[in-house]
Write a structure and sequence with these properties.
Two copies of one chain form a homodimer. The first copy, chain A, is α+β, with helices and mostly antiparallel strands. Chain A is built from seven helices and twelve strands. Chain A binds a DNA duplex through α6.
DNA sequence: CGGACCATTGATAATTGTCAAAATTCGTGG
DNA sequence: CCACGAATTTTGACAATTATCAATGGTCCG
């Protein structure tokens, strides 16, 4: 079975192959779906979706990462998700004509695949498994958000920042001889917006972690975790 | 078509009638499903589900309300949802053997309906519409959680408390001559745990709202909203 | 190399948490 | 229906944390 799609860029693998919600389908089914897919490129900083847009497609991250956010009443950005490869969004608009509930902005140059609501609904009726996969995926996303809410509820900013570093570590960390190196997807301000604290507070706390020998900051863009146990401690208790 | 189920308590209407996810089904289909349903009663304060439980059913609220919560690292309760009549939970355990991710506790004496995972999966394959309904409902729940997270990011406690009152108003409010009367589902402490602030702070803020003529507190259990515009202002800005 | 942008640091103010005590409310049983 | 004890809530004083503002210092990229 030929798994090369005709989109002109996923040379060795159909992009939707990477998407968990299609994982129960066989090669032929995936090939059929591939033909229904549209592709888009966005540059770093470009807005993929704006809050209030009536998008009529489900959008799948094919390459790079993006942040989903809303504005708080104070005008500050509140980040909700970091979408990485294989993640999707827009499923809320699947049946209802509900509009997009948040902004999505490319954190690097990214590539997306999209599937129209109409096509997607036909798929769902044809392959109920996909529906179950989506329910499963939405459940996971709910769990993650519930965990975020739980962390936000921790009044201690140290814990919250510690948890964020661990999250990033799991998603973007690479093992090196001295510990784990994280390529930060967000600036200090971005992290502050994720945690709901002031930019300066993030600086101070990171400075404090560095003094305590837990991390080493490298050029604003990377952080080296040098003492995993202490980080777990900070994130996990007092 | 007879719509009386044999559960012995929903005399005039099958309980699942109230559940949005079954709303696309006809009377006969609903009757068939009714036979598969189990019923349970819980007293106020009883735990319906504990975090870590491996529940094998989807549970539907039939009467009364319940709170879903997790414990923060500090040992404080963080409330995630208030489930009212027609809401369901346990859908995360639908396919994966994932365990319950939060506690659910009855806020009054409640009645629930449950449907085993096995039965539920069969239904999903038979009626793909139910799957779509669930995706829709989960999408709404995600939106709500995203909004909560957004509010948690608002540093201003006044706004957050104002928003909570408006939420309660929409769910539990009754119009009276002097304004809107809310039967509070949660105690002061409960509200504090929802907002992630100290109990005393909720007291003080409510006192402040009362001084400003926005609300009138009645016996700890009810609040009368006397100045809707001001409340919207507080919730919506400064 | 220079300018724009981002991050850090310091000083101060504002907000909220904590602890303790008093007041109110609730529910039960007489 | 009232009274009493338990539970919850309110209030006050103080401490701790974080936000804000302003100035300085670094970093990135053409």
């Amino acid at each position: 079975m030929d798994t090369t799609c005709d989109c002109g860029r996923c040379k060795h693998d159909i992009c939707i192959h990477r998407v968990p919600i299609f994982s129960t389908l066989n090669e032929k089914e995936i090939s059929n779906i591939a033909e229904l897919i549209n592709h888009h490129d966005y540059k770093k900083g470009e807005i993929v979706v704006s809050e209030g847009d009536s998008i009529d497609s489900i959008i799948i991250m094919n390459q790079g990462s993006a942040k989903a956010f809303k504005y708080t009443l104070e005008g500050r950005e509140q980040i909700l998700y970091i979408f990485a490869e294989g993640d999707f969004f827009g499923e809320k608009n699947l049946l209802s004509n509900q509009r997009a509930t948040f902004f999505v902005e490319a954190l690097q140059d990214i590539k997306t695949c999209s599937l129209s609501r109409y096509q997607f609904q036909k798929l769902l009726y044809k392959y109920p498994d996909i529906g179950i996969k989506i329910i499963d995926e939405l459940g996971k996303r709910l769990s993650r958000l519930e965990n975020s809410l739980q962390s936000m509820g921790v009044r201690n900013v140290d814990s919250r920042l510690g948890s964020l570093l661990i999250d990033f570590q799991e998603k973007f960390g690479v093992s090196v001889s001295e510990g784990t190196l994280i390529q930060l997807p967000l600036s200090r301000e971005g992290m502050a917006n994720y945690l709901g604290v002031a930019r300066e507070t993030v600086s101070r706390k990171l400075g404090q972690f560095e003094q305590e020998g837990i991390i080493r900051t490298i050029n604003n863009k990377s952080i080296l975790i040098t003492d995993q146990d202490s980080l777990n401690m900070v994130a996990g208790s007092a």
